[in-house]
Each structure stands twice: as C-alpha cells, then as structure tokens.
C-alpha cells in the first residue's frame, strides 16, 4: 500500500514539473530550434521530387502548430463569444505572424506537390523559413536584456516606413531622370526596373551606376539595340567617334545631388528619428516588457506541456475530455486591455493609496535620520522666531511708529518754513542773518532705507477716499535734482484751498514715443483725454479725471510738481505687472512650508548688483500682450504661451499706484496679474527653467540683467510698490510671506 502511495506521489510531482510554464517554455524552445535546423537542412540539402521522411516530419510539426493556433483561437477561458476571441487573437502581432507563416507554408506545400511547380514551391518555402525565424523574436522577449530592445525595434519599424516613403520619392525621381538621359527607348521591363530602381538604390551603398560619366564606356559590354538579354542597352553615343553623346556634366551633377540627399540628409534624418524613438520609449519600455513577459508566461501555462509535434497528444486529450467525458473547461478571467469607468476608478484609488503609503514610508525614513532631525529643529526655531517677531511688533509697533511719524511731520514743516523764509527774504522783509538754519534734507536713497514698513500697505491706493499718497510727495524727484513743493496731508486734495501752492514744471528728456514736453500748449491741446487717443488709452481705472488749462489733474491730489516728469504720457500711464510664481519644493518634489503655510517662489530681475530686485513688468507696446521688460527676460518661444497664461491669470490689483515719479499731471496706474504654476511638471515652466539655467552661466561670464527665482518673504530686497503686490499674491494663495 505504501509503495502505491509513493508511486502516485512521484507521478504527481513529475506531472507538476512538466506542467510548470518554465519547463513548457524550455521544451518548446528546444523543439523550435530543432524544427528550424531540420527545415534548413531540407531546403538546402534534402529537397527531393518526392518528400523525404525528414520533410514529412516538418509537415507533422507544422500541422501541430496549426492545431495549437486553432486551440488558442476557439478556446475561451472566460466564456466570451467567437467575435471577441477572434478580436483578441488577431490583436496580437505574433499571432498575425503565425497565421501568415502557416498560409505561406500551405501555399508552398501545394506548389511543391505539383511537379510543374516544384521550384516555385521551394521558393515559397524558403520565404516561409524567414518568417518562422522571425518567430524566434517572440521567444527572446522573455529575456531582460533582449526584451526591451525588441520593443524598441518594433517602434522603429514605423519610422522606417515613413523614411522609405521619402526615400522612394527621391530614388524614383533620380532613376527616371538618369534612365531617360542615358538610354533611348528601353523596352525590356527587367532592365528598365534595374536602371530606375535597382541602380538608384544601390548608389546609396556606394555602387555607382555604369556609364554615368562616360569614363568606363565600352561598346563591347553593352547592346546597341537592346537585343542581348544579358547586356544593358548602350547609352546615347556617337557611332562615328565611338564616344557617349549624353551630357556628362548633367548626369554627374544629378549623381552628386542624389548622394547628398540620400547619404547625408535622409540617412541622418533616419538616425535622428531612431534616436528620438529610443529616448521616448526607453523610459517606459521596462514596464511594457514586464507585461509582455507575463503574457508569454500565461500563454505557455495555458497550452499543453508537450512541445510540437508531441503537443498533438495534449490536443487529443482535450478533445476526449470535452467530447467524450463532457468535462467542462476551467473558467478564469483574463486581463483586460481597456477598463471601463466603473473598474478604472477603484484601480486609480488603489494606486493613489500605494503612492501615499510609499511617500509616507520615505518621509518616515528621513525623519529618523540625524540630519532630518536637525533640520526639523531648525524649522521649529525659525517658526518660534517668527512668532516672537509678530508678538514684538504687536507690542512695540505703535511706539516705533510714533517717532517715525513725528520725524516725517518735522521734515515737512521744515520744508514749508524754508519756502516761507525764502519768500519773505525775496520780498525784503527779513535779512540773511534772520534765516533759521534747518536740518539737512535726506536723499531719496536714505528715505527709501528708512521708510516705515507700515507704509507699504499704502503704496497701492485701493480706497478712493484715501488721497494721501506718500511716495509721490518725496521732496527730491527720482534721478534728478528737482525739488517738489511741500504739500501737507490736509492740502493734498484739490478741493482744499492752497493759495501759496506754486509747484515747478518738470519734464525729463526721454526717447521713444512720448507726449510733448509741455512747453507748447497748442500741442497739448491736441491730446484727447479720458478716451482712447489713437494707440494710447488715456482713460483712468477710477473714472473720468479733470483737465485744466490743457493738462490733466492727478485724481489723488497734489504732488508738489507739475509736468509729466520721467513718465511717457500726460494723464494715466498704464502698466501691466505679471507676477510669475511657483511652489518652492525640496529635492523630493514636496512643497516646502513655513509656519504651516506653503512657500512661494517669484520670478524677479535686477539690472545691477546694487539695485533691489523688481518684478519684470511695465508698459506695453501697441498691439502687444506682454510688457517690454517681461518679453526681454523670457525666450521668444514662450511669448505666446505666457500671453495665454496672462489671459487666464488672476487679477490681484487694478488701480492707482503711489509711485515716486507721479506728478500733478502724470501718474501710474497698474494691473497686476498673477501667473502661478501649481504643478512642477508644467511644460511652460520646464522650458522657462531650462532658459534660466542657460542665463545663469553666460559665455562671457558677465550679465547685464540677472533673472532668477526668489523666495517670497517680507525681508526680500524689493521695490516697495512691488513688495505690496507680492504680499497680495501671497495672501491670495494663502502662502507664507
């Protein structure tokens, strides 16, 4: 009894061993190699009028292959219909190759059995041998080294198809022109084909067509009238001199052009196409190869374990089980090539869960490292310092603002007293010694350095009732020695009476399309205010403004200076300010945070190292969507993309800007639009980063303008009005500032 159990157990182990897909695969490889060797032997050595035993064995092997292909076509493991099974079967490239090889073998066998078509049958069988050898590539897909290369090879076949279309046009055009110039009325089809296609194609590989230049012209090696079927027809020649009469310079020129286009242009184009296909497919080839290997393993697991031709025994067993014993087949679901929406959603959710689990594991590993712990402690210290600064600003902010406010009022009072003293001295009411000594005035750079951060919020005048602009009343006008007439806060509105108000008239020299300097009031009278004046829009964002004596009046009130100053237009000077931002990310692509808020990066520029950073914006040329400075810092290929992003961007401010260059008759109005790249995989952002990397290392090592990404923070060295815009953008995205 024990011996019977041991023998049964051994039989089950042997059956399990041979049913394993790896063993089945190896047996099929050995069988296929033996079949190809025997097939090659029959074609080259043992091809008799009457089929030999070796040739009959090949017929049996092919018959077993036909039976296996029929089993794959009609066997349905999931119980689907014949139409679906046929669609799945013929959707596989290798199945199509098998069917083509079988049909060609059947055609060759039919011709081979007929004595009159014996040679034709051998030719067809020889061609079928090529297809059967190509079937080996399907077996090699299981290799980790050869599998991905076979996938890339299949993709490159499409490139060759399009390349052959271009090559055929040039080969045929050159071949027809050469044949028409050299040969007169060639009536033999085979030689005509050689002259037009065969010789033109071989020229690519260095075989120059005969008689192309007349150097090797020999009447003994050609047929003058084309009657000799083994010799080409002689080219156009002079019978009396025995020399060619065709234009040799023309044929040589055509040959040179043909070699130039085919050997240099087209072949290099093919290499470039192969290189692009290789780089495009290489990233995902490994995944595709793994799926194909799984499909190959499933195929050999589902087929009978015996290799051809012994696989016929497995087919007989299946027929006996299904037809005689009525045993139903084992049903199982196959993998789907496409998923419906109800099946795709759970799969995507599962993939997202695995991704989050993997990222969480990486984050846990980083947190356990000593460097990460030190980095976390540093972030906590920074957060605590920020909280302390906020608390100190809340307690001492009012105390610090009071001296600054007193200093500002004293400076303005000193300016008014200086004006009054100068007026009295000019009238002769006071002497030189009675003039009081006033404190020296501070320059614009010192004023910008000592500017109170609390005044930053007033640089953008959003409240129509707040007319006390600050920067537009600085005593010294920027980039000049012109002084403004001191204007106290209560005298800023035009409605307030200010009898001694006598500002200077100043217009800076400026190139480009600008308004007249104001000396000729007749020219100023031609300007159309509160409307679109040609290509210039002179309408204000805050509604109609007053025009007095041919000059517009600043809607925010007096500034202490008349004229248009350093601005280009009288009235509103419209500026467009794109604010390009992205999320700051670490090396792993995770968004950085500070004080529990996401951190932004903004695109800034500076002309010199000593100047503060600035947002790349400004005035627009007529008909242009992007500002001049913004177009100068981005590549031309991205102008259209940023124009579309600007139309889709978020407008964070639109209105009057308290600018130091504002005057009573000219002022700046701005539209600030936020362009935010939320994804690091955005194509426009990637191209912009590549362009900025090229700017970071110029050929000469010296740059006139520096453009880069800067961290959005309140301590960033930025122009005050730009910093106010940046704070609005950070508030809009609930980011750190």
TrEMBL record:
Coiled coil: none annotated. The chain crosses the membrane at residues 21-45, 97-117, 160-183, 249-271. Residues 434-454 are annotated as: Disordered. Keywords: Membrane, Receptor, Transmembrane, Transmembrane helix. CDD domains: NUDIX_ADPRase_Nudt9 (cd03670). InterPro entries: Ion_trans_dom, NUDIX_hydrolase-like_dom_sf, TRPM. Residues 33-283 form the Ion transport domain. It holds the Pfam family Ion_trans. Gene3D superfamilies: Nucleoside Triphosphate Pyrophosphohydrolase. It is a multi-pass membrane protein. It is found in: Membrane. This is Transient receptor potential cation channel subfamily M member 2 isoform X4. The lineage of its organism: Eukaryota, Metazoa, Chordata, Craniata, Vertebrata.
